[in-house]
Amino acid sequence: MKKDDVKIGQTYMAKLSKNVVPVRIDAENAKGGWDAKSLATGRTVRIESAGQLQRECTQADLAGSAKATAKKPKRKATTSPTAATDAKTAAKATKEAKPEPAATRAKQGDDAKPKKAKAKMSGLDAAAKVLLEAKKPMGTKQIVEVAFAKKYWQSGGKTPAATLYAAIIREIAIKKKDSRFRKAGRGKFSINEAK
């Protein structure tokens, strides 16, 4: 299509992503192209060029779009990548938080009841516990290995030892004598017994 053929308020078949869907042109966009509403999803979309518009929309196109929309559940539009990530995270958390149906638990026996999750320690709490049990100075790499082995703390980070080192140094700098840790040599820490 040509730019001059596009009229505000008219419906066209437009290529959006990989799909061809009916859109209604609502206004010209200040950055060029047009603001439109996808009649398939109800979302506001931007048509950047007349090349995206293939032809004027017919009644058959609208009827086909209505059937396709009825089959797919509508998703809420997100305004930013962060909002999209938050929505996915919230949906995942909701899915994981649903309790198991009673019928399923009955089939599996009483052992299938959901177990209470243990309270997880922070990296600093785990380090303090490891150092208290070890009763000797340790490097953060050793502390992390012991904390992971005893399941005091888990981290998905690539450098948990570096993260823990920075956190311990920060606690020592901020709390000074009240810190749970003290430096015990180069790269090694122990419990602050003077506390």
Written description of the protein model:
By secondary structure, the chain is of the alpha+beta class. Among the domains are: 65 residues, SH3 type barrels; 69 residues. Helix content is 38%, strand content 19%. It has six helices and eight strands; from the N terminus they run βββββααααβααββ. The chain has a five-stranded antiparallel beta sheet with strand order 4-3-2-1-5, with helices on one face. The chain has a three-stranded antiparallel beta sheet with strand order 6-8-7. α5 packs across α6. The longest helix is centred in the middle third of the chain and has 17 residues. It starts with 10 loop residues before the first strand and ends with a strand.
